[in-house]
Design goal:
Blueprint lengths: L1 H11 L3 H16 L4 H5 L9 E4 L11 E5 L2 E5 L15 E4 L1 H5 L2 E5 L2 E4 H10 L12 H12 L1 E2 L2 E2 H25 L1
Antiparallel strand pairs: 1-4, 2-3, 3-5, 5-6, 7-8
Helix pairs in contact: 1-2, 1-7, 2-5, 2-7, 5-6, 5-7
Length: about 180
Amino acid sequence: MWDYERLQEIIKNPSAANLLNSSSILRKLLCDTNPLVHQANRNAKIKIQFQVSEYGITREDDPIFEGSRGGIQYLSQIDSLCPGNFDENTNIVQLNLDSFLSTKVVFIRGRMVSVLELIKYLSDNAGGVHKDKPSKESSKLLEGLGINHYVGGVPAPLRIILSVCQVVSVALFPLYKWIKA
């Protein structure tokens, strides 16, 4: 419950430090071996669904947001991933946790990067939980993106994680209400 409430605070105040800290919350809730969301949902048995735009990033010539600086070209959904930013023409898909974590949110130098890879990079390499030199290709690409590209005053990977936080917030709200009741 506290993690959900902290996520709400981060969404309301998306500073760079808060967004980086969101990666530790998202990792605990969604990505660890026994994610907190599964533990919290054992008794409630609520069908948790993550609502995202069906479009996603599917190929190099499908930009929703495009940038190029410092030799790094990238495409990202940024705000179009999250429910509050859909327009009436947007087709929304409901995803389970595994499908959501595998959703591609950024295309960097010919490589698609998933929600899971973004969370893991920010938590394990960028300082959300640990600060360590990236060893995985996706983490190295995200590090370069963060150094060279800022969106809304924060490194691009942090801006993208804000949309992930918003999707997770909507998905976990029914479970939060059940726990609080």
